[in-house]
Fold each of these.
Amino acid sequence: MITADAPALPTGAPQLPREHFLNVEYGVKSWLLTTDHKRIALMFLVAVTLFFFLGGAAAALFRLELLTPPGDLVSDHTYNKLFSIHGVTMVWFFLIPSIPAVLGNFLVPMMIGARDLAFPRLNLSSFYLFVIGGLFTLVVMFTGGLDTGWTFYTPYSSMFANTYVIAAVTGIFIAGFSSIFTGLNFIVTIHKMRAPGLTWFRLPLFIWAIYATSVILVLATPVLAITLTLVGVERIFHVGIFDPAIGGDPLLFQHLFWFYSHPAVYIMVLPSMGVVSEVITCFSRKRIFGYHFIAFSSLAIAVIGFLVWGHHMFVSGQSIYAGMVFSMLSFAVAIPSAVKVFNWTATLYKGSVSFETPMLYSLGFIGLFTIGGLTGLFLATLGIDVHVHDTYFVIAHFHYIMVGGAVMGYMSGIHFWWPKMTGRMYPDGWGRLAALIIFIGFNLTFFPQFILGYLGMPRRYHSYPPEFQVLNVMSTAGASILAVGYLLPLVYMLWSLRYGRIAGPNPWRAKGLEWETTSPPPTDNFEKIPTVTEGAYAYPERKETAHG
Amino acid sequence: MLGLWVQLSPDRASTVAGKVDHLFYFLIAVSVFFAGLIFTLILVFAVKYRRRPGNEIPPATKDNLMLEILWTAIPAGLTVVIFLWGARLFYHIFTPPTGTIKINVVAKQWMWKIQHPEGKMEIDELHLPLGRPVELNLISEDVIHDFFVPAFRVKHDVLPGRYSVEWFKPTKTGKYHFFCSQYCGTGHSRMVGWVYVMTPRDYQRWLTSGQPTDPLAVTGERLFQRVGCAACHGQESNGRGPSLVGLFGQTVHLQNGRTRLADDDYLRESILRPNAELVEGYQPVMPTFKGILSEEQILELLAYMKSLPPKEGEVQP
């Protein structure tokens, strides 16, 4: 994209701008009461990082328990609390807010040439709702725990569990409004605040992905709020909603829960797909292949994603004909994802490909997401799902999507825009090493779980038959490697805040409005609102010579 | 290589196991093909088009509508094939044949109580004869459980408040795991047991070993008299309640003008909430037996009701 009057890039070693959003004001109050989308994004970054490591610590503990077949490290009750809190924190307090609330908040206004989101104060309230919801979760975690799993299946959660179900669902309920406000803010901003000349089909694909995600956030999250409220009502007042002993229907809960929670999977992975589109183009110096197909596939995923929830219920007692309809629709939602993968791959063709840290994560994303997507076909296949449903096959599949996909995309994005956010570069060598360690650790952790699931090991088992041990040992070994891989970036990113090389406005020579302002950007993002005259990813192109 | 020191495929001990595996292998082949294609292309492009002097500015490439259509249509066509294959198998897996042995399974936190039609009870173990189709009638006393036999490639959730059915036909004698595979609380991973598939002769011997038992229908009849069902529903009742002779499997006309198939769920419901779906022409006078009868006793009553011969003049299918 070219602006009418782009500021001349300084020559020589880049320097930090004299005034930017980080140093314009100091003091706790200037952060806690800020309405600057960039500061709010950084506060979200700190919060979700905390939850990521808490959720990760829980996983480390139960992976350690699973090293041996008998339950010997922690009690069964503690084990159940560990995987429950792992699921709740990772889903609602890391994966869902990660890219939208951190990168989306930081980038949406900058990518569309705006000075802030449409509703800056709503944005701040979104952060506080997240914090309040998070505090509930922390209280649950450190006082009594929760043992329902992140899925809260009834009537276990509503009538039988004797852990802190009400506090946990209250936390998620409140954090849900954070999601709704963020989604609403993005939708309005993208509709109303694009810079002159920035038409819909000139938008970066990250914006398309965030837009599709926002639609899901706004439409699906209320259903979660209603569902969790009903669990609370049944638990406190014993109104028969889900428990058949008092006149309820337990499958009703599953329908309501998955009506939210399946689209929620796309809330987690669509933004990562947006990041990958930005990164792949930048590091192959190319226009994206099939812009329109990638853009519309995001919307197709958002729409069809609402119609597939019943594939979580093939063996629940749902009618077998309903199962068939949901199976068919689940296959349909796989197609747009495949289209994206093919288009990203084709973008590399005849490119000028380099392998800095963000690119390694994005290439990793494509590979792992492909495996996650293909194993999703197994689960959508009715006759196969009967066997592998609720086994480690499912665990492996959704971690390939949520960690191999969503987290790899998030890491890619954090590494790509880190210089923009902080003005400094992290050491790329360490970055690439960490990416490699994470890739290896991830596959060693989760690939054996596909085999475990096919062999029949059920999920959420505190102890297991001895014949499953070898694969579990591999998985735990992988998890240890993965832990090292995730701790490394924490160290070198913090290091870079002080010692990192000054990045300059556009260290990757990337296209996009966010790269045309200083790093870190000023509070108002742009000195002058840019005017856009061309489509996204207009990287320079060489004229083909006669011999091609 | 891995196969030398860990098992890579579960035992295959039912008629559907092989069918599930064939579709599974087909999906593996499809996955290996597509993953291989993507990985190879990425590797080739990454090496061939890596940045080096002379290609810092790459040539322009155009979008290609034909390619987009191809890589939408080919996966779409393939998924139709997989869907149809999977749906057909699913229908087969969940449609029990006739002539099954019907075994009752009552799940509770955290144990399995299993009762054979001959009255033999067992806990966390299931003995089966080889080569006979078996139909499990599953119900839970509390939360949702799931009865999963990996070697048979089948599972079904076990719901409270309604019966679920799971069937299979064992094809290999031996000892196989069964697991609860729906998370059900603290002792979830203790809710496991063994399926023993035996030759028909061994099974008969096992059935008659230990304490002699009465068939379920006989125990049910005694219960029918003891808890007072017979007073209104018995042979000499004075018409206060509808006769239960030949009722099972019939369509009944309800007070509210609707009709309902008298299946296990309806009969169970009518014992626990007698006035919910009242039969036409009767008064809502029956007391509830909720909290009085256990799930096992209800199953015994159902067995008795099913054993009553059909009404005279009506042909039973």
Note: The longest strand of chain B covers residues 101-108.
Amino acid sequence: MAFHALTVTYIISLLGLWAVSLIGHISPAFIMFAGLLVIISVAYNQKTRKAIPAGAWNTAAVAVFLFFLADFLLISGELIVSGSRFLTVLLALKLFDLRTGKDHFIVFSLAFFQILASAASTISPVFFAILSLYIIFSIWALIIFNLRRDLQNSGLSTDAPHDIFGVRFFLSVIGLSLFCILITAVLFFSIPRMGVGIFERNASDTLNVSGFSDRMDLGAIGALKLDSAVVMRIEMPDGKRPEAPLYIRGATLDLYHGTGWSRHNAGRRLLKKEDGSFNIGGPGKRSVEQRIWLEPLDTDVLFAASGVYRLSGSFPNLWVDPAGAIRLPAPPFSRLEYSAFSDLSGVIPSGPPEPHYLDASYLDTARDGRTIKRLSSAMTQGKKNALEKALAIQNYLRSNFSYNLSVPGSDGSTPLEDFLLRTKEGYCEHFATAMTMLLRASGVPARVVTGFQQGEWNGLGGYFIVRQQDAHSWVEAYIDDRGWMRFDPTPASASAYAPSVITLYLDFMRLKWNRYVIQYSFTDQQRLVKGARTRAAGLMDILKEPFKTKGYSGAESGAAVLLALILFIAAAFALILRRAYGSRARSKAPAYYIEMLKVLEAKGIGKLSHETPAEFAKRVGDPYVDEVTRLYHMERFGGQSPLEDELAGVLKALEEVRKRQSWGQPAGGAARRSSR
Amino acid sequence: MNLRPAISAPLPWLTFAAAKLLGKKRRDMLKLPRSLTITREGKWYIGILLIIGVAAINTGNNLLYLIVATLLSLIIVSGIMSEAVLRGIRIERHLPEYAFRGSPVTIRLKAINTKKRVPSFSFNAADGGQEKGAYFLKLRAGERATAAVEYAFNKRGRAILDRVRVSTRFPFGLFLKGKDEVIAGELLVLPAIHPEKAIAAHDSLSAGSARAIGKGHGTGLYGLRDYTLMDDSRHIHWRSAAKTERLLLKEFEADASKRLVIVFENHKGDDAALFEELVERAAATAAVHIEKGWSVGLKTLKRELPDASGRAQLMRILAELAVMEGLPGGKPSVSIRDV
């Protein structure tokens, strides 16, 4: 087919299918099923194509609609998910019925709605690739189907000449699509974000991060350590990697109950927003600013580098508990962007701790916990103060215990006993729990902190990529006269994750996509306008400079620049008008016509003042005069510039008029001189 | 190709209001250089765009904003491309001298792409009021093409064709953009000829007044003249040709017994349709009788054409009938009478 209609229809169908695959709750099996239908339809359209009765299609459409209703009401319960499945099945069926241009057009529309459904439920940057390809192929499709319809309406054959849709046509479509994408980008950033959001969408694909709630069972973080999903990205505004490692602090847990931890409910404090920021404490010695993009998590905890003292973001209010964990009023279920300032010294100043930080119950199977207390005493023997004791326990655990994510099964004793006395293997939770309880057993107040390690550094954008597998827990011990100090008894893991350069590039793109597309907001637009205004002011200063050097005042210089700008805009506007209304604005007769009038007048045939050019030509009655007059009419009143060969013809006619000695029907008597 | 717009965009309302205020003469000055109408598909497109726009505002979903921006950008690209098609297209129109009312007449429209690089795709050229136009699929830069198109005129008289509308739905079929090419042209629309409407005349109509009235289609020899290629070879006077070695043509006297005058009392009357019916009856009468060799004249309230035979006389009568207007007074009527 000269129009390649089938090719473009299948490409657009596959793009629709790809878009649906981005929707979270649609399984790959369904996509594969739909893909299989598409492949079968290709074979059907190529070989065994038969006209299927309209009744059969209507029945199939009703069946698919009933399937959609059942899916929505009984299976998925989500309109977008069931709607997308409905559209996909409908599209696959329609591919078996591609008879007219209208059928193809229905496929394009269904694919468009699939992309629309995908837009409503995904945040993947792949969406942009799909949309860009859809732009290219839909432009192609719309052009060829529009041409085909125009041909049909004109009564001509619908087989377009082969030279219309060649390589040049395809390249033109690509160029046009790129131009379209460019305009899309400009419009996207310019359309005002109203910020109404009455039906603002919650992210349906929130990450499940156990361990950051009020309760944590031992082993909860272990599952996270195998998940590489990105939890947050932390950008350092100066683009430099901090020298000290970042401990991204989340929740604190202080009550141990034998198999896990919970939080002592001692009330929480509402933070007040002052100058757009929430102040938690005073700035420390080693302050560092972080800009954090937190993925949708099912926790109300806000994460930031340990020692946070100020936080700013678009939160209505925040809470802070006595242990310094910052919490939102409710889990956000959407992406968050905020800035935090932290003191990286590793010490959180605080008054004397509450007694429950010394609670050492459930140490082991013996009710008085004598075994572990004995172990603690052995570790801290000879240590005089809390700091020395903490360092001794930390070093002992790091040196004598090993890191292992596959913890062997218990023999019936408590997890802590298992770890300290039997297996001597475990991961961060075990080490942190063990150190906290050993410290408490030796009389040092301590607590467990859950959060994340800093993750991978991406030098391309100057930020850390923090994944689920970077989940971590460590210890904070109260050291007299200092406050809560951070200790990390977990030895280094053998298998450190090293991302490839491609991964870093892709993640950088994802960061920018999230930052400038997914989370682009009215605030960003204000920032853009402000930046543009600043640049305009700078430009104005540069323009005013020459006037200032000549001794004009600031206001005079400003007025002069303004006047120049107005003149420039007026000139540009006039130029545009001249181009648009050029034919009407031109009032002078073309030179060749004036020349002909002169020649005729010299020969005694002057144009009368009341005569129109047509009347004059009729009176002269010469074919060459007629020809010049015809072109004159065309140019003067038709707004058409003469072509080169026409101009050559007129000049030749003018020459003939010059040569002519006698005239067929000269004007009745002598012609008067006339003014045109 | 029928490119009838679905609805008109409200773009020129301000211009129209200004033109109303300034008067008719300045209307052309204020007229926008392009017209824009939205097709049915365009209406759907804009409707979907608005719905997605509302959804984007209500959900704050930036990907929906992205789709809105994409749809808007396609409109902009469509505007640029349709402008590229129309810009630099020049139309020339070649009209016949006359047409018969209601009958198709072939007009030749020549399209010239005066642009230096950009081709023009899929555009239509048609005079205002004409359903059919000439369709051009592709015109390369500097290329020209001619298309024949059939126009029909439903009103007798002088048909003034002052501009050709060049329009295109290219590239996406969402909008119909047009521009007017000012090309003055005129043709005479003659009354339609339906032979069955003719008033029958009898040979006896002119009985008793037989006399030679000049050349015609009678039987008596009127004279000889040189033969031209336009003449009927059956009337060559072979005997004279043999003598003079020149081809001479026999000319006949008009048949003095077949003369009539169509009397048209062209009062306007109350019924315009009746007036037009009478015009067509007069035209049919003239055509039928001249075809049969009669010598026919026309007398109206203002003018009188002496009777004569031949095609030239028929055209004179038809031209007169074409431009004839009703005059105040009684009822119009058509009759024939003896010369």
Note: The CA atoms of residues 362 and 506 of chain A lie 47 Å apart.
Amino acid sequence: MIVELQKLQQVVWGANVLAAVILFILVVSRQNYRAFPAFTLYLLTNTALSIWVFIAYKQWGINSNAAWWFAWGMQVIATGARALAVSELCRRILARYVGIWNLAWRILLSCATVLLVYSWVATEYQWKLAVIRAERGLELAIAAVIVGVFVFTRHYGVTVEPTDRWMGVGYCLYSCFSVVNNTLLERYLNRYVPIWNFLEMLAFLASLLLWTWALRKKLPESASSVTLLPEAVYSTLTPEINVRLESLNENLKRLWYPEVKRP
Amino acid sequence: MNLYFYFFLGLIGLLLILLIWSLRKPRRSARPHQGMSLPEECGSRHTAYLPQIQQALAKEDYEYVSRRASRELLRRFRTERRRTALAFLAGLREDFENLLEVAKVVAVLSPEVVALQEFEKLRLTWQFRWGFERVRLQIWMGHAQLADVSSLANVVSGLSVRMQRAIKELGERAALASKLGSSLDGGGVHTV
């Protein structure tokens, strides 16, 4: 049973790497890396790390302590890159709306910090579980931030592009699954390890497919920040425009109401 | 241990429910109701009746009536007074909600025009809600403080002024954009 699962795990691992490479090629060929630079970096980091971890396991053996620490260290780096990609998505969706963004980023960051700290101190302090908890905390924070952004967009009626929506769903579902999976791992530890890794990879494959779907088309050139006129120009021109509008109004009045006495 | 285990599972369940809810298409748009223009929505229609309400709630008037009217008439006078004050309060709340809706639309339509910082909006909302409940309780108990009613109306009229200013700025920016657009065309229509 365990041997079969290990074989299946290797197949899913291969599928993951293949899907990530295809997605990376798609992102580059469609030039979507311009819209999602942090996501592209995350994809690259994640794929490279996953290959290194595979090599490390081959080199040191699946049960070695060194391989275990190496794998988890790499996982923390990947999760960090993921957090960067998520912050990029949040900015894409909300940063245009200055007032909303000022409120949103503070609330989201506070929520993320509280969840991160809470999930760390939630159980007794044990070194062996430290990395699992750190990762769970980060994933929980990521899921909360993504959901928070969508709640904000719903509250304010902000339109979210389908690409951004699918990207967000991809991040969120994987993070939610990862939290559940890590919580189960913490509880059942040794009994759950073989299934845990397999399920984690399956969930990531599902996210990769969602992101591939989201980025299947070339995105329009990102609406680079609007170039506003200097305040001085604005204040000089506004009175002039007001005078012209007033004059236009008078002209229209004369046109529509010819009976009005002319001066 | 068990508690934390279920806590994490529950939290994830909650996040998923929120995710599904926030991705559903909203039933109504955040835009104001059809047929209502933004400037109309910016008015604080009910604050115009503040002097009359202050007069109606004045202690002197009540004392005068209580000296001269029969007990039945006085009872009716109290009931009517309360009903009017509560209707005024409901109107103020309606104005306030409309103005908040306008602020939301301005924040979405024109990110550069910050009509009201969102933190300030939260503060004003709490201030209004708290004041509203306090005044309502006072009215029910029969001794409304005129100062509290006025400060509630001031919150609404202050917000209304700021919204009108933001809408004006929106209009001016739109006009400026159109002027610049027609200048670029090279053959702009001269109105003077």
Note: Residues 228-263 of chain A form one domain.
Amino acid sequence: MSDILLDFNQVTMQFGGVTALNDVTLQIKRGEILGLIGPNGAGKTTCFNVMTGVYSPTKGSVSFEGKNLAKLKRYEITNVGIARTFQNIRLFSQMTALENVMVGADARKRSSVGGAILRTPRQRHEEKEARERSMELLQFMGIADRAETAARNLPYGYQRRLEIARALATEPKLLCLDEPAAGFNPAEKQELNELILKIREQGYTVLLIEHDMNVVMKVSDRVAVLDFGQKIADGLPADVRANPAVIAAYLGVDDHAS
Amino acid sequence: MPDWLIVRTFWDLTVTGLALGSIYALVALGYTLVYGVLRLINFAHSEIFMVGTFGALLASTQFLNVPLLENGNYPYRTGMTLIIFLVFIMLIAMLFSGVGAVVLERVAYRPLRGNGDSFGAIVLAFLTAFVVSLVFVDEAKINVIIALLGTAPISYAYLRYFKQGRQAPRLAFLISAIGASTAIAEAVGVWSKNGRDQYQTPRLLEKKTLFTMFGTDVRIDYVIVIVGALLMMTALTLFVNKTRLGRGVRAVAQDAETSRILGVNVDLIIIVTFALGGIMAGGAAMLFTLVYDQTRFNIGFILGVKSFTAAVLGGIGNLKGALLGGLLLGLVENYGSAIFGGQWKDVIAFTMLLIVLMFRPTGLLGESLGKARV
Amino acid sequence: MSQVTKVWTAFNGLFAGLGAQFRAMNKWQRYSVYGLGIIALYLLPYWPEVPVLGQIVNTPGSQFETVMNDQVIIFVLVALGLNVVVGIAGLLDLGYVGFYAVGAYVTAILTSAHGNLPWLLALPVAVIISMLFGVILGTPTLRLRGDYLAIVTLGFGEIIRLTAKNMDWLGASRGISNIAKPPSMFGLKFGVLDAKPYFYLGLTLVFIVIFILHRLEYSRVGRAWVAIREDEDAAELMGVNTFKFKLWAFTIGAGIGGLAGVHYAGKVGFINPDNFPLQLSILFLAAVVLGGSGNMYGAILGAILVAYMPERLRNFADKRVFVFGIVLVLMMVFRPEGILPKRVGNEHKKRKAKAQAGEVAS
């Protein structure tokens, strides 16, 4: 089994005349937490979308465990083992928290319409298992007390955690979090860090886009930095933080000596 | 069939196809304008057309007092009288359709956009009271009286209950359109003099042959339709491209929010858009009665679907596309019915619609009201 | 708060109170209530004879059980099917009458015009063929944007009707007569005059359909449908094969529509293209939208309103399409979700799950 989970190889992504990603090469190793940072407009979200199979790269390739993602249909991505959350929360607002997670769990099921109508033993077994697993995930995320509340009625913190629970329900190998700390206060961000570490302990690999340095630097094993669609740094958090190119990208080049 | 007969029939079919297609094109403009600006399929546009035909009917029979038959003959007019009469009928038809379109927008769509106004509340209140009165009585005059009595209190309540500031889901717009379309058609079918039967419109124009081309006699009414439609479309294109309001229409079609921020009165633009579509439909309605001398409560439906097909075929949101689509559809329908038989005409149109939507949903010329190219 | 709001709140409170009492009952008590309800429904043809209830419920001008069967039961079946397509999966279908027509015509063809099959054999064949039409129509068109789908389905409905009208093999304008009747069963004879046996049969079909739909709703299929309706892209990225499930919704809806057509054909014995106009699609849609799209019981309520009210209030029978057009507009302006909105969560599983969560969390 290879050490490298996701191989992002010389990827260029163009939309019409705009080049969002320019020859980016990146690898995610099994079991690590990789942080992806960069100033606004650097291409993080595009990169994320290409990695999770939403876009097909204009040039280059993305492989997950050796499989080329470009060939997959969108709903097959979770099959392969990639799950994600969304920057602006996209829960199924009219379903309960439990049902939201169960939709994720359903991805692994084999029974379908016939089984549902006839309530075959396999269907009943799968349904029971999915329900139990989903409850476990809700407990893992600390939100089981509101399992039967409609998603749109949940407090913000619960909603964010619910999205993660739902993604985990698809039994991914790689969990991709898109700005999971947005809107959190410092205490909540600390909790989130602990949660991410807990998730990695369970055996998942994590990819994280974040703006908040407190979150990213503390929790990532490795950090990659994008600027204007190109990767400008890739390494340990401490090294990246001290990297002059990274500092320049965030703060701008200093024209006048102080 | 001898060769010359086929050729002759071919040109016949072409001329009539172009005339029919011109009517489709004019109505298609209404669909395409509203879709371009609001991304909404104005399902009730077909009834706006129908209302226009009834406007033409009223204009000639009531306002101009032209009878259906004069001493056993058609009530032909000639020269200046004819021109003035036709123009008058055209204007009245446009008035009916234009006003109808604007009323439709304010009653059935605007409240769903989250800015229902008192006009919409009043009309909805009247209709509500009318419908409720039907439960108890079925006497048109009494129903209207009860409705008028109930309008004031109900409209007050409605204004308070309008969901201001909240846009309804897309499906709701479509269903509201369907409801409005059904209600308008049924209202005419139930409460007009002939009910669901056909209405004859007086034939003012003697349908002589204007000239002969490729062995086919080209009738004057077909020529008027084609020329009239082209003139109206040119006027519309000039309006959209050269006037301030027209620029507003294109701006809102491209990006409503930005237009609003830049000071464009979006509500006014929407009214203008609907009015333009209505006026075009009114023109089409008058030309329709010119050629076919008849109308009925449900002609809107089939013509509407075909015109919508034309709009989609050419590229919805694209004015030139509406023209191209309309003419093309008219021709295909004619040729098709010559080959397969007249009764399959509608099936051909519907099938064309399905094929276009399945294989090229953006149409032949692509969507483009928002872009500079119109 | 205005007077109206106060009354409405009190009204809601009453129902909520009843609802709470109902949920508080244990399983056996609830099942007995269901049982009583079902028996009462089967006795529906006899309701007009009950003293006070009879006056309220009876339809002047036409025979009660005929109305109940020919109109109400048919509309209920259709609304249940259309609700799956429009309400649950969120696909606007304006040509549902097409599937209804297919069911009726296949029955007619197999039992009368071009065959001699008994009605009971024609039933499954007709339903399967309706479902096939659902697949044929759905496969190329379900990828379209919502508005376009509406127009395409409308075109489909009309194509079916016009094809039937223009093809002699389908009876053309004359239609097809001598359609077989359901066979005698359980002591019931299906003749020409008495509508009661048809009502019992129709009611049974309704219960079967409700049962199947209920099972679908509380399964991954139902969840997938709601997920697709809520946020199709997010659903796909969570592993939901949206196309497959949309097609299933469409197909199941088509099958139920066809089933309604089969029942209709068996009762009336004679059909022609004029029985399947566009206005009927509009009424079907009005039933679902009015009652509450996405909610099975809402659809049933809507069907009862649309089919029954014009008969009960004979006055406006010929104005019924007009009235429902206005009702559609008013509903969309003030309450697009319908009378009974979609329910959230699994009702009867609520208490069990609460108990579990309570145990584990503490």
Note: The CA atoms of residues 219 and 225 of chain C lie 10 Å apart.
